Amino acid sequence: MQQASHQIAFHDRGRVSRVPGIILLGASLFEVLGMMHHPSVQTTDTSRAIEQIARFSTWSAVIHGALITLMLLIAYGFVDFAVRRGLHRPLIRAGAIGYGCGVLVMVGAALVSGFVVSGLTSLIPHETAIDLQIIRQLLVLCRVLNQTFANCAVVAMSVGIACWSLDLCGDSGWRRGVGLFGCLVALVPGLALIFGQIHLDVHGMTEVVVVQAIWNVAVAVLMLRRKVYSA
Q1: What predicted TM-score, i.e. pTM, was given to this entire model?
Q2: How confident is the model at residue 46 (pLDDT cuts 50, 70, 90)?
Q3: Are 35 and 113 in contact (CB under 8 A)?
Q4: For residue 1, is pLDDT > 70?
């Protein structure tokens, strides 16, 4: 009976679709590309900042909309990864919860940066000094919200990556190697945030995305080679 069950399981693994792995790999690479084209304000003067925000408002909406879509596609790939590893495994369940929460919070950060800020500058008048002061205060609030969401999201996603990586470390070969690398990927951004070595502005967030994308690609390769299953 056990031998028959093993054969059935092996047969099912052979029929697993490669699509989620391809999606995870492609979306991770395109997310890096999207962050490299992320618009940013290059001045501290409120009037010039408003002009810059208005100038790239459409492009900002396109980029942030694309980044949100890519984050959800990456999450889809990781859902398939978690199912293949086995949702009955505690670390896999914990990782799915942590990473899923991180994605949802990061979507909030993207909405603030890509849509709320542009909406404020276009809807609120800015002819007088008082108008500019009000907008400046609201933009500061948006920045605080964006940074808070981003910090929380990176920590939550790092926790998810750490849990999945620890689970992979229990295996051997390439899975263990990817697991060990994932532990570093999860640990470094968290420590950098705690000790103030990184701030999640456009540059800092791009660095985090690049590091996470490397691990994502490694997991995608395991999925494409059908090497995700536990030993």
Answers
A1: 0.87
A2: confident
A3: no
A4: no
